[in-house]
Design goal:
Keywords: Coiled coil
Largest sheet: none
Oligomer: single chain
Number of strands: 0
Order of helices and strands: H
Number of helices: 1
Shape: rod-shaped
Distance between the termini: 56 Å
Structural class: mainly alpha
Helix content: over 70%
């Protein structure tokens, strides 16, 4: 039971890291689009 919980935690952490990388990429694209419009 405890091992299963640790595995779920590990998967959650990986998902969070993936999402934050995605967010960073989106922020960069947004900045690019804004600078292109000006």
């Amino acid at each position: 039971m405890k091992r299963e919980r640790q595995r779920q935690l590990h998967e959650l952490k990986q998902e969070v890291m993936r999402l934050s990388e995605e967010a960073n990429t989106l922020q960069r694209e947004l900045k690019l689009q804004k600078s292109l419009k000006q």
